[in-house]
Amino acid sequence: DAGITQSPRHKVTETGTPVTLRCHQTENHRYMYWYRQDPGHGLRLIHYSYGVKDTDKGEVSDGYSVSRSKTEDFLLTLESATSSQTSVYFCATCLAGQETQYFGPGTRLLVL
Amino acid sequence: AQSVTQLGSHVSVSEGALVLLRCNYSSSVPPYLFWYVQYPNQGLQLLLKYTTGATLVKGINGFEAEFKKSETSFHLTKPSAHMSDAAEYFCAVSYGNNRLAFGKGNQVVVIP
User: Fold this and answer.
1) Any idea what DSSP says for residue B28?
2) Sheet with A73-78: strands ordered across
3) B44 vs A48: CB contact, 8 Å cut-off?
4) CA distance B13 to A16
5) Which residues contact B50 (CB under 8 A, 6 or more apart)?
6) What is the torsion angle, in degrees rounded to the nearest 10, for the CA atoms of residue A50, residue A51, residue A56 and residue A58?
7) Which of A44, A100, A104 sits opposite B49 (nearest CB)?
8) How high is the mean pLDDT in each 10-residue block of chain A (112 residues)?
């Protein structure tokens, strides 16, 4: 358990509005990840971070941006939300030198 | 590219019967392999993992998995299903920079 919290836990928004999801961890893990989970697709990596201000794209990064200004926080931004971004979003962390990822409780996002 | 195949999105098993979930992967390097479990409305929890050494790995809640390099498989088993095993199960393989590729998951239903 890496002491991961996600906020908000639920959000309803309208198409075209910006949305920011926050992931906060208390264990000083170096790596942080954002995934989306959709039925029939499993988990797909959106973006990940390997240190403060060091981020890279995952397999489904279009329409998303991220920022990591502090070790403990990793923000995911949907600049202009679309209905296809309705999903459950999970944050995960990983300690340097290990491969095991620890997951947060998720954020359920509905874009109308 | 790394990929993970889990066949059968829904798996039904009778209480007390064997649970068998199949996972095959493709990887260009010796993999680290994982099984995660997700209970309703929760994040993913690590069930077990293979990194190096013994190919039969024991996890929590009576689950185990065997790494077979020649078959590129990492199947998950439990001798006797319990009602509390009803959940979704994900197989994952590591690939570069502490990233994981996930299978699409198996939803396990336990029949009394």
Assistant:
1) S
2) A4-7, A19-25, A73-78, A64-70
3) no
4) 44
5) B31, B32, B33, B34, B57, B65, B67, B74
6) 40
7) A100
8) 89 97 96 95 95 94 97 97 98 91 96 97
